[in-house]
Amino acid sequence: MTHSIKASFTERFFSASDGLQLYARDYGHDNPQTKRTLPIVCLAGLSRNSRDFHLLAEQLSTHPDRPRRVVALDYRGRGFSAWDPDKSHYQLPVEAEDVLTACAVLDVEQAIFIGTSRGGLILHLLAAMRPTLLRGVILNDIGPVIETSGLLLIRQYLEAQPVLQSWDEAVESLKRVHGDAFPALDQADWDDMAKAIFREKDGMIVADFDPALIEPLRNITGETPMADLWTLYEGLKPVPLMTIRGESSAILSPATFAEMAERHPRMRSVAAAGQGHAPLLHRPDLLAEIRGFISGVS
Questions:
Q1: Alpha carbon of 28 to those of 33, 49, 59, 61, 80: distances in Å?
Q2: How high is the pLDDT of residue 2?
Q3: What is the full DSSP assignment across the chain?
Q4: Starting at the edge strand that comes first in sequence, how are the strands of the sheet with 70-74 ordered?
Q5: What per-residue string of b and e applies to 70-85 under the rule 16 or more CB within 10 Å gives b?
Q6: DSSP string computed for 26-43
Q7: CA-CA distance, 187 to 59, in Å (whole number)?
Q8: What is the mean pLDDT of residues 221-236?
Q9: Are the C-beta atoms of 205 and 170 separated by less than 8 Å?
Q10: What domains can you pick out in the chain, each with its CATH number?
């Protein structure tokens, strides 16, 4: 494993069980104070990466009273992790195994996990695969039932990635697609989102993921039944849980959100005002909720 220091985090490169190179950002690792508290492990959405959590990780890892070590992962095919030559490996069980490998390599024996969208689905699997790893869980706009209409929207905007000549164009593109669902965001938020989603390559601004990730979505129609993960959700009941729902989310319905609270009576329910799928977690309202939750776990 090699690493280099980058501003507020350390870059970690390591191998998955099949040899593919994976990447993570490690915030606060060298601060002796973070050894006294549980680390935070952040898992991103389908086409997203560790950069989604940068501002949140900086806030949590530099807290003056209780700084936390924060690890944010790039799954295979995203960000600075290698693209998998076997595209059939872009599936939840493989990615869950990669998370277990990352935790072993990075000496994370137990942690509070934050899972955005697909990251939250991975946490449903980890609750069955390695329940002792999870000391607390934050699900960001995801639950045991995924709305088909929301997946169709995700496929639509992932397939329609425009050719972008500049970062200004990237920001304006995001505003056109997501602006109605995210009225709470300011200009800095849109700029940060663009830098998280896109990367400059050969003079162009391109989406930072392997396009093969979209393939499993291509056969979905409005009548396609979605997997029922309620049985796996039961595995989260022994764990302190907070679930965040974007006010205008098309992925996590109000009905599913309410049923999650009924089935997990200690679940902390948080609504992200003025945000859709998936909420930006560094915004002041959500940052305060997250800090309160993790402080209550350890």
A1: 9, 19, 11, 5, 20
A2: 40
A3: -EEEEETTEEEEEEE-TTS-EEEEEEESTT-GGGGGS--EEEE--TT--GGGGHHHHHHHHT-SSS---EEEEEPTTBTTSPPPSSGGG-SHHHHHHHHHHHHHHTT-SSEEEEEETHHHHHHHHHHHH-GGGEEEEEEES--SS--HHHHHHHHHHHHTPPPB-SHHHHHHHHHHHHGGG-TT--HHHHHHHHHHHEEEETTEEEESB-GGGGGGGTT--TTPPPP--HHHHGGGTTS-EEEEEETT-SSS-HHHHHHHHHHSTTPEEEEETT--SS--TTSHHHHHHHHHHHHHH-
A4: 2-6, 9-15, 21-27, 70-74, 40-43, 111-116, 134-140, 241-246, 268-272
A5: bbbbbbbbbbbbbebe
A6: EESTT-GGGGGS--EEEE
A7: 19
A8: 89
A9: yes
A10: 2-297 (3.40.50.1820)
For residues 188 and 162, which has the higher predicted lDDT (pLDDT)?
188
Both tokens assigned to 88:
């059939």
pLDDT in tens, 132-171: 999 999 999 999 999 998 999 899 888 877 789 999 999 9
Mean pLDDT of the 162-190 span: 94
Distance from C-alpha of 241 to C-alpha of 120, rounded to nearest angstrom: 11
DSSP code per residue over 133-184: GEEEEEEES--SS--HHHHHHHHHHHHTPPPB-SHHHHHHHHHHHHGGG-TT
Residue 81, both tokens:
């992790």
